[in-house]
Amino acid sequence: MALKVENKSIVVPGETLAEGMDFLPGEGAFREGEIVISSRLGLVNVDGRAIKIIPLAGTYLPKVGDRIICKVFDLTYSGWRVKTNTAYAAMLSMKEATSEYIEHGADLNKYFTIGEYIVAKIINVTGQNLIDISLKGPGLNKLKPGRIIEVDPCKVPRIIGKQGSMVSMVKNSTGCNIIVGQNGLIWLRGEPEDEMLAIECIKKIEKESHKQGLTEEIEKFLKDKTGGVIKKPPVMEEDEPRERREPRRDSRSPPYRGGPRRDSRSGPRNFNRDNRRQRR
Amino acid sequence: MTYTKRKDKRKMDETRPIIAKVGIIPNAKGSASFTIGKTTAYAAVYGPRELHPKFLQDPKTGKLRCNYNMMPFSGTGERIRPGPSRRSKEISMVTQNALASVMDLSDYPNTVVDVFVEIPQADAGTRCAGICAASMALADAGFKMKDIPVSIAIAVADNKTVFADPDYAEETLNQTGEAEHVADIAVTILPRTGQVTHLQMDGMVSKEKLFEALEMAKAVTKKINETLKVALKEQFKVEASK
User: Fold this and answer.
1) Which phi and psi angles does A75 have, rounded to 5°?
2) B59, B190, B191 ranked by CB distance to A128: nearest
3) E strand or H helix at A83, and its extent?
4) How close does chain A come to B218, measured CA to CA in Å?
5) Does the structure's ipTM exceed the value 0.90?
6) Chain A residue with minimal CA distance to B139?
7) Fewest 10 Å CB contacts: which of A142, B126, B146, B149?
8) From CA B136, how far away is CA B125, in angstroms rounded?
């Protein structure tokens, strides 16, 4: 008939949340007979009739649409394999990596090589948690030199804040560029001391994520450290799209670049050039 | 001669003092320590991670893998030979079976969750302490569980006296001549439902006394469960009061 625990209180697995059929078990809870029971460690969230548990610890589960930071660890025939900070590797296919035409048998190291970090978007997850990622979209690219830190993936929403309020506050106080991946990896770049401050701040948010009024506390913390100076991070210049580096070749009016015109011996090349048009 | 009064003046259903802590190993996904009297167990949880060799993988669910180890200096003098032994392999398996039934790892197919249980100091009841520490560590790591399994040893002296949580001196009453025979029953119980996930026994006991021991175990595990719950919640409360 009634709730057995207070809303927003911390519960452990196996704790009775409510009795009777008036409540429905949501994420992190289950029903056994008449009672609703918690199945994980977290905060109770009662929303109407549904009771769910907001986890305070846990693992990242890949979701379509998430922006994650991952590390290239393998080159395959058709693309790259990347580590995602989960138990599962993701696949970045050539098609999703760049809009540039990659010749058959080209050296993929030219684009991404082992050990490099990228920000990518998850475009597909199978039932067996095989992940496909893409680099097509704004802000998705290879990461520039900086620091990568790891946080608990459950705390990522708190670190980002509502509409990114928390992370932009950290950015503007420390002058660091920060990219937060949903999988719990965070990339930052700035002056060394600023980076250290930003890391300290992120770790503080991670540790105290269950508190109420955390934004104000972090604001105060940053004010104490920086003296309230607002330091905008340098604007990150978007990497020039690769195809613009080489002069664009348009098949409708191929520019005459001097030298002999290609004859039939370079047939495959011409063939490829046509292919390229179609791909765009 | 029967054993009617306990050596350390405990009540028959009283355990040794318990200290439970959570989050003691920062590198691990979840960790806990469980101290009961002079027995201490640490547990650390890692993963889910890829399971190798591949044929062990289960495409339907993640697997739990436990490893129990007694540290070389954990005994009462003799150095314990390091490395896996017949005994530690058995306890690893038993720990795994005691915990696996409450875990829901279906979100992590083809993976393994590793639990490492270390015993830095032993004074009987190490497998029970290990299971308690491991179940706390798994909860701390944020895995979905039906309940927090609690393990306890119940001893029966001369098929007459039933008492909870024997220490080493009580486990060896037959060696000191204070009792003819001691049966040592290690049992893991889900406190909410009273279901038994693990039951082992050394020695002999009558059916009636076994049931009496199990009833005692149910009551004792309920109490221990409260201690574990407090320990799991404390890590958040302490920070909140700062």
Assistant:
1) -110, 130
2) B59
3) strand A79-83
4) 16
5) no
6) A41
7) A142
8) 17
